[in-house]
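Sample entry (280 residues):
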Amino acid sequence: MSYRGKLIVKPDTRVTLADIDPGFHGHHKSHEEATPEIADNLARISDLQELLYAEKKHALLIVLQGIDAAGKDGVCWHVITAMNPQGCKVTGFKQPSSEERAHDFLWRVHPHAPALGQVAVFNRSHYEDVLVVRVHDLAPKSVWSKRYKAINDFESLLAENGVTIVKFFLYISKDEQLERFARRLDDKDRQWKISASDYAERQYWDAYIEAYEAMLSKCSTEHAPWFVIPSNHKWFRNLAVSAILRETMEGMHMKAPEPTVDIAEIRKKYHAAVAAQKGH
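Predicted structure, serialized as tokens:
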């Protein structure tokens, strides 16, 4: 199955999340059944990232968005872990600092865009400024409503400069979120992830869904597509994200660069060194 074709938000499409099943899990029935495919995807992603790093003709930006407990950190732990940290950086965007608020909303984001040969992962992103800002009336509609175009222009600029952009909206049900909160409360090793705002934010669920639908509808483009990832099953989330990343990176048609040294001359030195070693 091509999860890319199944889960992509086509440009100029009106998204209604109620029409999407967050419990969808493709043709696999269990984590155990999907594990070999996930492992194969991660191995391939690792090889492709090495080519990206070596070739330095492309960059990759991965954007992760989702309501609390949707699994953004989980994707970083279980999918992005396939990346060599020498060529991959994860940046989280939470409440802006006073200095960041004194600039335009994209000011704090642009420095973290990936250089050629690099992968950047945004765990939350510039989209917070059309999500939480909208839901909590932190800026008037006359301000945040213009940001969709600014975001599309920003991502177009990155794409024109060699950055491949892939954006994942991790979609869980309201019931699943509550169950995940409960499991965190019962797990002493994960209680640090709980905050008072987790439950307070649930009263804004419908407002967030409306904001996410606008984000997906207005900002999925040919050069920076959104994918809605059904994430009630964590293993399917990892399978779908890894499959789409693999297909995206394979589509970059990367290859190892030509050597910068005379290989024949280096080989002669190698054989000479082997002969000298045997002589001892």
